Amino acid sequence: MLSRTADHLFWMSRYMERAENTARMLDVNYQTSLLPQSADRAEQGWAGVLGISELTQAFQKKHDAVTPANVIQFMVRDAGNPSSIVSCLAAARENARAVRGTLTTELWETTNQTWLEFNRQLREGSFDRDPAALFEWVKFRSHLSRGVSVGTMLQDEALHFIRIGTFLERADNTARLLDVKFHALAGDYFGSWGHDDAPEVDFYHWSAILRSVSGFEIYRKVYRNVIRPDKVAELLMLRPDMPRSLAACMNEVVANLDHVANEQSSETQRRAGRLRSDLQFGRIDEILATGLHAFLTQFLDRVNDIGAGISRDFLVPA
Hints:
single chain, 75% helix
């Protein structure tokens, strides 16, 4: 496969996944903001959305205050923000258009229609009337795109690069979400909160984290007890049967890298395989003993390194 084609497929899927992840974060924060809470707590939640995407400074250049309206505007419809939903959907569509001949008709039409319909909803004001409905719609369209790609694409290199982009982006997002949410509470979490000394964080904080990755019902099914921070971390990091966990994402990345391997990709494969092994054989108590923030920071560095390796080995040089 031409490196330019692989590059467009890889980034098409990353941008679609990023749009979904942004919609998930905004949706959960919007729903949580409707609950009774202090002004400081509410502002901290919206600041966390910016922190997860490393957009705090970019936001401050355009807005004076962290308010729900400002953050939603910046993260949804600001074309100057490369991580906003409108920017991600536009980038996904442009990358798809560039490799139109490689995609199935169904996948191209799904991607193109998502972009067109999203802009129509913004113009007609349905987003302003009901932001939650639009967030759900973005998530649904991402799910549809993923299902159409698996259900209609030939299982060749094109599909493998789409899958690599999807799961590398998802791993990055899940790690950022965990890091910001835990770090906001404890600076660094070492798994040392007992029932008596836990911070005054109610059920809704942990359930919001789980709901943002569709993990609330899964947590109840797996653990069947009250929501504990160490179990939340374990579910979203080490459980390979949790679709958005770090372990599940790296399993997919490694498997798809194996399918597209070439003469120069052995080092990238080794690093990806080693990261997967660290998650596969890791224990949450050992990770927490050294600090959750330290582990997640290192994980993000390693994921970025793997992404750079993939670009170097397969894609168009930057």
